[in-house]
Design brief:
homodimer, about 45% helix, 3-stranded mixed beta sheet, Arc Repressor Mutant, subunit A, DNA-binding, about 140 residues, alpha+beta
Chain lengths: ~140, ~140
DNA sequence: TTACATATGTAATATTATAACATTTAATTA
DNA sequence: TAATTAAATGTTATAATATTACATATGTAA
């Protein structure tokens, strides 16, 4: 019972959560909160809080990540991302393109090792790789 | 000649840079920009810009790191940190303690591998490990 | 000295995010 | 079903973080 409710909580999105997520999913770049706000003003999203509340929830359930160094948000591309999940991104310093790294088992192993070495427990991580991307290297 | 100047630029700090760095060095936790501002008001630092400009420069030369997820700043503990250097931290989710990871050759190797795999070049990285620390685990 | 780059000071303002509280909607259960 | 509670929403105001723009000063090189 408790479990069922929890599952629902994760899967059933409210109206605001739904439209914020849809917008992020169709965007090909990270969006800032106020840019989301302006984009969605015609759909009834009128105040920052509506956006921030939706984002908080979406991040909590693992559907969205925040790119901390940019104060911007992206939809998670990893369908099996778990709640409060780990996030790893590359960010091109030239063209600003951001992509999520999905094959990060090796990273996780290393980071767990680092945490364990200090006798602490790794809960989650945020990794931002500033790169020059393939296209910009040419 | 060019080199010498560059070296000087890295080593000779201006008054504001100096006092901001001193403050960060004696703090045992990351400080926020406005907290630095209030702390230094008696030393003639009166406007946010003075703090932000000093921080920018200190970050540029590798003396300070920004904890992106906290909008807070710490002095680099790694004496041989190079300009625009890589940063890796653990952040305890219970007690907020932050420490810099310094032995991160292994991480760097992995991250370089990830970047190279996409045919892109790694310039720097920001890694924030959210942990429960040794003390808080008890 | 003149010219130039770098650093500073200051005021104003832009951007990002949250607090507080009233209202509505949804879920639970008596 | 109606009553009760929890969760989500709407709205206003404001806090916290960061930058623009411009005037002035200081240091460095020609």
């Amino acid at each position: 019972m408790k479990n069922k409710q929890l599952t629902n909580k994760k899967e059933i999105l409210t109206k605001n959560q739904e439209i914020v997520l849809k917008l992020l999913e169709k965007s090909n770049e990270p969006l800032k909160a106020y840019s989301i706000l302006f984009n969605l003003s015609e759909q009834g999203v009128k105040a920052p809080l509506q956006v921030y509340r939706a984002l908080d929830r979406l991040i909590e359930i693992g559907k969205v990540h925040k790119i901390e160094s940019k104060n911007a948000f992206v939809a998670c591309i990893n369908s099996n991302c778990t709640a409060n999940s780990n996030a790893a991104f590359t960010i091109c310093e030239d063209c600003d393109a951001v992509s999520e790294i999905h094959d990060n088992k090796e990273i996780l192993k290393n980071l767990n090792y680092l945490a364990n070495r200090e006798k602490s427990k790794l809960n989650k991580y945020n990794l931002e790789l500033y790169i020059t991307c393939k296209n910009c290297l040419k």
